[in-house]
Amino acid sequence: MDDVQLRTIPSPPPTERHAPLPLMRLSKVGKIYQNGTLALTDVDLTIADGEFVSLLGPSGCGKSTLLRLIAGLGAVSGGEIGWPQAARDARGDPIRNLGFVFQEPTLMPWATVIENVYLPLKIAGVSRRDAAPRLEEALKMVRLEGFATAYPRELSGGMKMRASIARALVVKPRVLLMDEPFAALDEITRFRLNNDLLRLWQEQRWTVIFVTHSVFESVYLSNRIVVMSARPGRVIDDLPIGAPYPRGDAFRTSTPYNDYCRLVSGALNRAMAGTEEDR
Amino acid sequence: MTDRSGSSSGSQGLPLSVRIAVPIVLGIVLLGVWEALVRYLAVPKYVLPAPSLIVGALWDGFPTLMGSLWVTLSVTLSAFVIALVLGVFIAILFAQSRLFEVSLFPYAVILQVTPIVSIAPLVLIWVGLDHIEQALLILATIVAFFPILSNTTLGLKSVDHNLQNLLDLYQASRWQRLKELQFPSAMPYLLGGMKISGGLALIGAVVAEFVAGAGTGTGLAWRIVESGNRLDIPRMFAALMLLSILGISIFFGLSALEYVLLHKWHESALRREN
What we know:
The structure holds two protein chains of two kinds.
Chain A: H1 2-8, E1 24-32, E2 38-47, E3 52-56, H2 63-71, E4 78-82, E5 98-101, H3 113-123, H4 128-141, H5 157-169, E6 175-179, H6 187-204, E7 207-212, H7 215-221, E8 224-228, E9 235-240, H8 255-272
Parallel strand pairs in A: 3-7, 3-8, 5-6, 6-7
Antiparallel strand pairs in A: 1-2, 1-4, 8-9
Helix pairs in contact in A: 3-4, 3-5, 4-5, 7-8
Chain B: H1 16-41, H2 51-60, H3 62-96, H4 98-113, H5 116-127, H6 132-157, H7 161-169, H8 174-212, H9 220-229, H10 233-262
Helix pairs in contact in B: 2-10, 3-4, 3-6, 3-8, 4-6, 5-6, 5-8, 6-8, 8-9, 8-10, 9-10
């Protein structure tokens, strides 16, 4: 099954002669909460370097839970999350080099934008002086250069989210995990941040795993959409989105975009079939 | 005892000058009415002295009363600082270990709910009658300790869940977690606790002196008892006035500290246009 997926999904050219190891391999991952809720069951998923994967599903399907498990926030109840390429740290855990963006900006209200962005480096023991160029770069990437010394309360929702993204990018992550980051923003801001995110992804070539419940957003952004069923969450469909990058606002009104949206909507409807919420 | 008019949200629309001037003018008017009524009705000074007599008593006994003010102030401040350090320290331990909290918190509550007056004689016996000032300090500390402990404990735990996850992700140490996240999150709670504690430390210092008597120096509480025994009511009022001023100063001092530390980010200290 892994082979099939890898063949159908456009991935960056392999740097080695033989097929490269996948970045991440989830096999039979399950999660049962302490209160007995079965959130995820038998999730199999292989993700290659440089992919932009959306996890799409109805609310409560466990897509956020899955993202948190990938991030190592919480333990799996069954199965395994493997990082075949990753080196190991002293404790034998894989060094995954992640950035995480939450649904809320999750900034520290008592700290300025630049102090918020500095946090991951500070924890890693990087001095403020050594961090300075990286902080500047991260703020530049999200276009917040002029707001380094502003407090979060002085920023708009979109700018807070940009600061949050800068904080995730400052560690130069290999994988960017995003949990419905733009769900709370207005449409114009969301479109703008979508475009900024795509531009950064094409420049930096990290892997993105993007949780969303929006068919349109997932089609616009990703080159692969993993559709999940309602609780207990499982992978129902795995759809490549072959439209070329760079994608701009013209793509939003194009025929291929509409076709993909129809295709993905159909898959999502199948994923929700039989659930109470659907009726 | 304390004047809260400056911090109530209903008065925020008024300019600062009005908010300061109005209570002062009202105070002067009331003092005038008091003075006039006492003179007109010829109320004996051992029942209710006129304000002018009280000021006179303050003037006559100024060195003594200032000495007593200093004694009460030092007991209050020492107790407050000890309560602050101890309260924050134990709150940090509570935040580190749930087991520690569930085993110790009930005893902190017992200490809090037991009336200070009722344990004063016991503390006095333990420290010995030669060290009354230590008894005062211990009693005032016990009273001031609890708000700091409970507020700081609550604050250290009121950390944004996602920010906690973020620190998990970056594998922050316990110390980093405390320094970067828990302390700043707890700050508004701690400052709220300090405002309550500051007032309580003064109450503790005064009540303890009433019960235990004066130590090496005589505090304001004992001056009040003394003046009462001598029916020197103007002097009693003078001491009372100094106590009020002390309490108000503590409250406003801590409010100012709160403003300085929080005004840049916390809702409670932000000025809003709407």
